[in-house]
Write a structure and sequence with these properties.
Strand content: under 5%
Shape: globular
Structural class: mainly alpha
Distance between the termini: 37 Å
Number of strands: 4
Length: 551
């Protein structure tokens, strides 16, 4: 991993020398005295540590295989790092089968609480216990192998439940890398005062929950966010009048390209539709920054090695999907709704289900057996309404187009993608699949607020960030406690019973985990607020660079 460094020692707190300042030829002493000349390494490491800690908290609070599809992803990772990349066929078994070492022998009783929301998690057996099988069928056996190599290696050192928790930690650290890159790229740009507010949504409960599990959906979300934010920054750089003269821009061009390339490759390979997600996010960033900036990337020969690496990552993803056949199998009638139905039927189903998908993206834990109650969503809804209202009310024509296109994409892309495959797969879309897109749209809202239209309400940025961070802190804590309640005593049991008759206990105990999570999420909210204050102090105000972008 490249060191999260900056090019010039003069850049010394949070952001960077704005590209438009450099492009206008501001003298070195003037640049050095600017409050926008700041370091970003501490931002990277603080964001990394806090996000990883939140994910690990969820990793410890979630019973083994309680996260959707985790059992299938875990056994694939365990087998893959031992040389079985895809699995093999066994008579009478529909899915591919992988072999497991004795310490990971699987007994179906381990998931006895799944689909039974009032059953605590203490009914399950442990991995490697007597009576388990040394093989397991996995419907993800043919999935792209990259993620599974990253998270599977701890299973070579540890066995049983300890190995699963260690793999979860590896997944959390992997996701934290991309979140930290997203934050670092966001605040190292001019007009960054609204970006901390936008990126605070990356710690939504479902995001850290999935990153603290063995499931590529988690890293897909944060890799998509890092790709969007860093690509916006990169295109803004190329949109400057004279990017070649930018000698101390805060983040070196090579480092910025590294974030774009690595996050793009990981996004493309996280799941089978990854290459399409990369194309969608590129299109949204081009709408935000302009075609001229996008074309300028191709006019510099130094861009082509990075573009080739991105293309190779996409080609590998497409090739693996075609060879492995992870998108080619025909579902049976009982596998999902509308198997064999038409495109229009699938599209209509998706449109009607959009509110449910948004709810799932915010807080629907377990195997659809641990939803949050309706009242718990209100802090998150208020935070989203505040950000959306500020962005739309302050936007000018170009910025309004960006927001409208981004929101339309967040709605239409899942509808069209799922409708296209309805005949083959039925409707299998879940709200968490769109989280990478929803977070990217919120990041674009933060970007838009930093443009010319948002200058009128710039004085609100710090206060709005603290309000949103506080609302999301309330939402995150409520989600954590309620999800724990489902596994400790059962969904319908009064929460006070957790203190009197806890039937299942996670590692460290549920009360210790709650206290730890409350403190960590409060620290994350404080970090976001601090970033907003420093970004506001570093904002030099409206400059010619904004006018260039507006054109």
């Amino acid at each position: 991993m490249p060191s999260p460094r900056i090019d010039a020692p003069a850049a010394d707190a949070l952001g960077s020398v704005p590209d438009d300042v450099v492009a206008r030829g501001v003298s070195a002493p003037e640049r050095a005295s600017s409050p926008a000349v700041q370091r970003t390494a501490w931002v990277f490491w603080t964001a990394f540590a806090l996000f990883a800690a939140l994910c690990v908290s969820w990793a410890l609070a979630s019973p083994i295989f309680s996260v959707p599809d985790e059992s299938a992803h875990a056994v694939k990772a365990i087998a893959q790092v031992r040389g079985e990349a895809i699995g093999h066929r066994e008579p009478g078994i529909r899915n591919l089968v992988v072999d497991l070492p004795p310490s990971y022998a699987v007994n179906p009783q381990i998931m006895c609480f799944v689909y039974h929301p009032n059953t605590p998690a203490d009914c399950g057996s442990s991995l490697g216990a007597p009576g388990g099988t040394l093989w397991s069928a996995s419907w993800v056996s043919a999935y792209n192998p990259i993620y599974y190599y990253v998270v599977g290696w701890p299973s070579l050192l540890l066995g049983g439940s300890a190995g699963i928790y260690a793999m979860r930690v590896a997944s959390a650290l992997f996701g934290a890398l991309f979140f930290a890159w997203a934050v670092q790229a966001a605040v190292a740009s001019p007009r960054a005062r609204w970006m901390p507010l936008a990126l605070s949504f990356a710690a939504l409960p479902m995001v850290v929950y999935l990153n603290g599990a063995i499931n590529p959906n988690g890293v897909e979300i944060v890799a998509g966010l890092a790709f969007t934010v860093s690509l916006l920054r990169l295109l803004r750089r190329f949109g400057a009048e004279a990017p070649e003269s930018s000698s101390a821009p805060g983040l070196g061009l090579g480092y910025l390209w590294t974030i774009v390339t690595v996050s793009g490759i990981v996004l493309a390979n996280a799941r089978a539709l990854g290459p399409l997600w990369v194309v969608v996010l590129v299109a949204l960033c081009v709408v935000a920054t302009g075609v001229r900036s996008f074309l300028a990337v191709f006019r510099r020969r130094a861009s082509y090695p990075w573009l080739i690496l991105l293309a190779l990552g996409g080609v590998f993803s497409v090739g693996w999907t075609l060879v492995g056949g992870s998108l080619s199998s025909q579902a049976e009638k009982g596998d999902a709704p509308l198997v064999g139905a038409s495109f229009l039927s699938g599209a209509a189903y998706m449109v009607r289900g959009t509110p449910a998908f948004l709810t799932q993206a915010l807080g629907y834990f377990g195997w659809f057996d641990a939803p949050l109650p309706g009242w718990a969503f209100w802090p998150a809804i208020a935070a989203l309404a505040l950000v959306g209202g500020l962005a739309f009310l302050s936007a000018r024509r170009r910025e309004l187009v960006t927001l409208a296109v981004a929101c339309a994409a967040a709605f239409l892309v899942p509808v069209l993608v799922q409708a296209y495959s309805t005949h083959q797969t039925g409707v299998i879309w879940q709200g968490r699949y769109g989280l990478f897109l929803y977070l990217s749209v919120i990041a674009l809202a933060g970007w838009v607020l930093g443009r010319r239209g948002g200058r009128r309400i710039a004085f609100l940025s710090v206060r709005a960030t603290w309000v949103v961070a506080g609302l999301l802190w309330l939402f995150g804590v409520a989600a954590f406690v309620l999800a724990l309640r489902r596994y400790v005593v059962g969904e319908s049991t009064p929460i006070t019973r957790m203190f009197q008759h806890a039937q299942w206990q996670p590692p460290l105990g549920w009360m210790t985990l709650v206290v730890l999570f409350v403190v960590l999420s409060a620290a994350f909210a404080a970090f976001v607020g601090l970033l907003a204050r420093r970004a506001a102090a570093a904002d030099l105000g409206p400059r010619a660079g904004d006018e260039a972008v507006a054109r």
